[in-house]
Design goal:
Elements: H1 6-15, H2 57-70, E1 74-78, H3 81-92, E2 98-102, H4 107-117, E3 123-127, H5 133-138, E4 144-150, H6 162-172, E5 175-179, E6 197-201, E7 215-219, H7 222-235, H8 241-252, H9 254-273, E8 278-282, H10 292-298, E9 305-310, H11 315-324, E10 329-330, E11 340-343, E12 361-365, H12 371-389
Parallel strand pairs: 2-3, 2-4, 4-5, 5-6, 10-11
Antiparallel strand pairs: 1-7, 6-7, 8-9, 9-12, 11-12
Helix pairs in contact: 2-8, 3-4, 3-7, 9-12, 11-12
Length: 390
């Protein structure tokens, strides 16, 4: 039934009847060689994969479920979230093409554009992170082949009008690729809004347990998908059956975790927003925050990841705050069950137009702990911040 919610469909696919007696989850098949009964069957792909580099049971089921979630004609799995960005760029761009993207782009994606694609004659143009739609479209030139979208943007969480950009780019013959990790294919569905390629780091919310690396690539148009599929075939990239099984397990509970962590994040963000030590909360889901109107119009939910701009201070004070925390882990990534905090001010200097902030930038990921306990922990952190400033 097409009117079922994501929450139901992600589970109902496991209990669908007609497949005989079986486990709820598919078996983990670890194999390089796949045996056949006859010589003629060895190259007959109608009977399934012919070699272990092709997706086996868990990966095939995960791909099917991601297709359903994204509303995609096809989806592929790659070894990391970064690979989910770099594979479509590799597949769709040629020497002499230009990519247009936000100045707030995820750092490793920016490095790939500059170092790898730049060495192969593909140039990159940047627009300001908070640029208006008309200004972004005005930056498109005859050489622009692809618009790479992040919304919300990395670290500073600027929002873009994705439906307007996708429609305008399609009219101009410009492809669109969107890193949709923040919404995880759940709170926002890029393909439904006209984006050509939707990618995400399965590492984050889909897997949900900080124990694997993976990315996904989803397309609505089989013609676009063919170039991506051929590139993956040529590169020989696949994911392990164990990781596919773990990601599939995580995907079943994605809606519940995403919603619960968003509730906690909103509580923590509201509390921090009222603190005198804090100048600004960078979180589109927060009323009054930059980009809130676009978020409210297009998104059905929010990730539990946001930025905290402190009032003044320096690196020593930021590190004192982080050191005092007991419940927030000090580590990169996000989307898992655990809360995390990072200090991000240093990364902003690499932008063409660094944002002017009132103080140090921290990034918080709110996990599944009790939000009241997290707030008490942050109270201790703010006390350490104040002491470091005195």
């Amino acid at each position: 039934m097409t009117d079922r919610t994501d929450r139901t469909r992600l589970i109902a696919s496991a209990t669908r009847r007609g497949k005989g007696r079986r486990p709820v989850a598919p078996p983990i098949e670890r194999a390089s060689t796949l045996l056949n009964d006859t010589p003629g069957a060895m190259r007959d792909d109608s009977q399934g994969p012919v070699y272990g580099i092709e997706d086996l049971s868990a990966a095939r089921e995960l791909r099917d479920l991601l297709c359903d979630l994204e509303g995609a004609a096809d989806a592929w799995l790659v070894p990391s979230g970064l690979a989910a960005v770099t594979v479509p760029l590799t597949a769709l761009l040629r020497h002499g093409d230009e990519v247009l993207t936000t100045d707030a782009l995820y750092g490793p994606s920016r490095r790939f554009l500059r170092r790898h694609l730049g060495a192969r004659g593909i140039t990159t143009a940047f627009h300001a992170a908070g640029a208006a739609t008309d200004d972004i479209l005005a930056a498109i030139t005859d050489r622009t082949r692809l618009l790479l979208i992040e919304s919300p943007a990395s670290l500073t969480f600027e929002m873009l009008d994705v439906p307007a950009l996708a429609a305008a780019c399609r009219a101009r013959g410009v492809l669109t690729v969107m890193d949709n990790t923040w919404a995880s294919g759940l709170a926002f569905k890029p393909l439904a809004f006209g984006v050509d390629v939707s990618v995400q780091a399965v590492t984050k919310y889909v897997a949900g347990h900080s124990d694997l690396l993976m990315g996904s690539i989803a397309v609505a148009d089989p013609k676009v998908g063919r170039a991506i599929a051929e590139t993956l075939e040529d590169l020989g990239w696949r994911v392990s059956p164990d990781d596919a099984w773990l990601a599939l397990r995580g995907l079943r509970t994605l809606p519940l975790r995403y919603l619960e962590q968003a509730r906690s994040a909103r509580m923590v963000a509201d509390w921090l927003n009222a603190r005198p030590e804090v100048a600004e909360i960078l979180y589109p889901a927060l009323p009054g925050a930059a980009g809130h109107d676009l978020w409210a119009r297009d998104y059905a939910g929010a990730a539990s990841l946001f930025g905290v701009v402190m009032r003044g201070g320096g690196e020593a004070a930021a590190h004192a705050l982080m050191t005092a925390l007991k419940l927030f882990g000090l580590g990169y990534s996000w989307g898992g069950f655990e809360s995390l905090i990072t200090h991000e001010t240093g990364q902003l200097s690499g932008r063409r137009w660094p944002p002017v902030l009132a103080g140090q930038l921290l990034r918080l990921h709110v996990g599944l702990e009790d939000p009241h306990d997290l707030i008490a922990d942050l109270e201790s952190g703010l006390a350490a911040w104040r002491a470091a400033l005195s």
